[in-house]
Design brief:
heterodimer; A: 150 residues; two-stranded antiparallel sheet; 2 strands; 7% strand; B: 649 residues; alpha/beta; Rossmann fold; six-stranded mixed beta sheet; 15 strands; 58% helix
Chain lengths: 150, 649
């Protein structure tokens, strides 16, 4: 299956200014996330809901591609790359897939920060509430964006 | 070391020349020396130590080593020789160690030693020829170091200190010395000193950025060392507080009126610990699930992708109907499947090229089909997430409730004890609560200090990396820098080896000592097992698995200590006879019988200095088949001297 993929890459990047926050979300037993990769995927999916990818201004390498779970994360990344257009050729370029993922994650990180870090209370509880809310109510992308902006 | 023979000349109450041969290793490896108090058992013991280690091994003034009768009989200014000679074997070599002290009589009531004692060590070859060994004291130190001799030549009644509370330092010291762990410790310290010296020199030579980094590194390392010392102190205090808490608890249990409540509280506290461990596990699992909870946000994008791919399939775009491989084959062979030629730049060729552009490779087709099934699986996982999360949160809440309930029950018992009509109970409980608070504070401080140490170590790592980078830019001081790096890495490596080695040795000694203890202790006793803890406490466990040192009798502690010493000797591989002075004084008959039955098997040679009434009855009968040589020390009250008489069997 992997022989179909071209333009390979080995690293994933985030906006440099967000790196300290990624660390805050993963450091210590009280942190809500175990791995940087999990922060990235959550931000990516929040960003996809907003619908507007945001290019990186200053790149910072955050983890290697091997950190992704091949049976969960990679299919999600490819589904995002396929996007509304359904262009199958987008799936064959790893660089294109990852770049798009990085831009969605960049866009979604502000929402993640607002929901988890900037709310009062334990960050893990804030994350649980966010996931429960989104899985049960599934608000629209604009509703999530409004929460992020408030 | 296996002792063949001990010869004394005018040593303490042994007038003239007298000798003892020791039973060799084998089925009859026990030497018994009988003597009442004052007969000269301790002097024989001293003779052994003095011969090998000189004046530092004994606390008797030199002048009193020489037999008084020999001094009395000597004319003025005539030399009187005091000598102890030990013949022994070590790893197929035979040795003769002789220590001699010469004194001369000044007048009828005083005498003077001619210098210090003289020590000669000969190596005897087969055939009888002997060569003197250079540096005899150093050689003896390698055969049986002076700092471990007290674990092989010892007073049976004093060894119980290893199993007495508060003697963890003695136990740790014994293990360090017998297993020569101190060699590693010294290596570690020495390398650390060397690394620091090189660092100073480097700092003096370095300029600019490198010097800044070195200064900061030195400062951080010094702060780290201080933090480690602080941590060690806190851990010692914590251990002492824990011991004191245990003792207070045991004293409370002893008060009949409240023992049930105290034991109930103990049980509740054990349950609380178990629930806390469970809760911690649940929290870890919860965190893992929540961290991966983003799958629940992937529903929309997965559904969208599945829908798109399905539509493409229905439209015949996947598979495309046009196989890439086939088209390429046709272009290469320049012939269509209908048989028509495909000439270069012809219309047929152009048609085939355009088909190629539309073709989807077979790998991509497989890739797309697998993607669909993966996305379906992701959706399945997303569907299960809310239920799994709810269940996990419910389990956490339930455990929290149980913990609260246990906490309340424990508090109620503690309050009841504080309000007890018995003053003793009130005092003990108050003290216990103070100590518990103090310990909690210490646990907190320890955690903070550990965290600080971790951060300092990370800081140090960062500085080391920076130093490397800066060094790349500075060409000077390369030789010093290389030496510094080598010393630093070696010191760090030895430290980690030391920790691992000390830990594995402790565990090996525990296993060995346990086997020996179970063979020596009376079966009727309530003690089932022993333990050598991480902080070098020698503990015995009762049949319920609780530490029970305080209930042990002196005799039982002696058995415990003996098990530890024998275990340690076995693990160290150090070959030495066990020489015990008054081994059975405080032991009751069952222990005595167990020891005489098993002890000869724990060592190559065993020498027992016993009082007449120590070894009799069943114990005597059990030991008989193992006795190789036996002596009696006969003290003559008229002369004040002792004669060594062999007891023939």
């Amino acid at each position: 299956m992997d022989s179909a993929i071209k333009d390979r890459r080995d690293s994933v990047y985030i906006e440099a200014q967000y790196h300290p926050l990624y660390k805050e979300l993963t450091d210590g037993a009280e942190a809500p996330f175990e791995y940087m990769k999990d922060v990235f995927m959550t931000a990516l999916l929040l960003g996809y809901r907003l619908g507007k990818p945001k290019p990186l201004e200053k790149r910072h390498m955050i983890f290697k591609i091997s950190a992704f779970n091949p049976s969960v994360d990679l299919p999600i990344l490819r589904a995002v790359a396929l996007g509304p257009s359904g262009d199958i050729s987008a799936l064959t370029s790893e660089n294109r897939t990852l770049t798009l993922a990085e831009e969605y994650a960049n866009a979604g990180f502000a929402a993640l920060r607002a929901e988890v870090l900037d709310r009062p209370g334990l960050t893990v509880n804030n994350l649980i509430l966010l996931l429960q809310r989104l899985s049960e109510g599934e608000p629209s992308a604009s509703e999530v964006a409004t929460t992020a902006d408030s | 070391m296996k002792i063949d023979n001990l010869r004394l000349i005018n040593f303490r109450q042994y007038y003239g020349e007298q000798a003892i041969r020791f039973a060799p290793d084998g089925p009859r490896n026990v030497t018994v020396i009988n003597g009442n108090n004052g007969a000269g058992k301790t002097s024989l013991f001293l003779a052994l130590n003095w011969c090998l280690y000189g004046d530092k091994a004994i606390d008797t003034p030199i002048g009193e080593l020489t037999n008084k009768r020999a001094l009395f009989e000597a004319a003025p200014n005539v030399e009187v020789q005091t000598q102890v000679q030990l013949r022994f074997r070590h790893k197929a070599m035979r040795y003769v160690a002789t220590r001699t002290l010469v004194q001369y009589k000044v007048d009828s009531s005083s005498w003077k030693a001619l210098g210090k004692s003289d020590f000669v060590l000969l190596r005897v070859k087969s055939g009888g020829a002997a060569e003197q060994v250079a540096n005899p004291e150093a050689v003896i130190e390698t055969l049986l170091p002076s700092n471990v001799r007290s674990y092989f030549f010892f007073d049976g009644e004093k060894i119980e200190r290893f199993s007495s509370p508060g003697h963890e330092t003695d136990v740790k010291e014994a293990i360090r010395n017998v297993l020569q762990i101190e060699v590693l410790e010294r290596a570690k310290e020495h390398l650390d000193v060397v690394a620091k010296e090189y660092q100073k020199e480097l700092k003096a030579q370095a300029t600019g950025k490198l010097q800044e980094v070195l200064v900061e590194e030195e400062r951080t390392r010094s702060t780290l060392d201080q933090a480690k010392i602080k941590l060690s102190g806190l851990l010692d205090e914590e251990r002492a507080a824990k011991r004191l808490l245990q003792e207070l608890e045991e004293r409370l249990v002893d008060v009949k009126a409240v023992s049930d409540s105290v034991e109930l509280r103990h049980d509740l506290e054990e349950q609380q610990k178990a629930r806390e461990a469970e809760y911690e596990q649940l929290q870890i699992q919860l965190r893992g699930e929540v961290s991966r909870g983003y799958v629940v946000l992937a529903g929309r994008v997965c559904d969208q992708a599945i829908e798109l791919l399905d539509q493409k399939r229905k439209r015949g775009q996947i598979p495309s109907g046009v196989r890439e491989v086939l088209i390429r084959d046709l272009l290469t062979s320049r012939q269509c499947i209908c048989g028509r030629d495909v000439a270069p730049h012809s219309r047929a060729e152009a048609e085939l090229q355009s088909l190629l552009e539309r073709a989807v490779s077979s790998e991509l087709e497989d890739f797309v089909s697998q993607l669909t099934s993966s996305l379906v699986a992701v959706n399945g996982q997303a569907g299960r997430f809310p239920v799994d999360l709810r269940n996990r949160l419910e389990a956490c809440r339930k455990t929290e409730g149980e913990l609260e309930r246990l906490h309340d029950q424990i508090e109620r018992i503690s309050e009841k004890l504080k309000d007890s009509p018995l003053e003793q109970v009130v005092g003990l409980e108050r003290r216990r609560q103070e100590e518990a608070q103090k310990r909690e504070q210490l646990v907190g401080d320890t955690a903070v200090t550990r965290d600080r140490i971790e951060r300092l170590q990370q800081e140090l790592k960062g500085l080391e990396d920076r130093r490397e980078t800066v060094k790349q830019q500075e060409r000077k001081s390369e030789a010093i820098y290389a030496k510094y790096q080598l010393a630093r890495k070696a010191a760090d490596k030895v430290e980690s080896i030391f920790e691992d080695f000390a830990s594995s040795m402790r565990r090996a000694i525990q296993t060995e000592a346990r086997t020996i203890f179970q063979s020596l202790i009376s079966k009727a006793t309530q003690f089932s097992d022993i333990r050598l803890t991480d902080d070098y406490r020698l503990e015995v466990l009762d049949r319920w698995g609780y530490a029970a040192r305080l209930e042990m009798s002196a005799g039982e502690r002696q058995v415990l200590s003996l098990s530890f010493i024998a275990g340690m000797a076995k693990i160290s591989g150090m070959e030495s006879p066990l020489v015990m002075d008054t081994p059975f004084g405080r032991l009751y008959s069952v222990h005595r019988e167990n020891i005489v039955e098993h002890l000869p098997d724990l060592t190559g040679q065993l020498a027992l200095f016993v009082q007449d009434e120590e070894l009799h009855g069943a114990a005597r009968r059990k030991l008989e088949p193992r006795i190789g040589v036996e002596y009696s020390l006969e003290f003559d009250h008229a002369t004040g001297c002792t004669r060594i008489v062999e007891v023939t069997q």
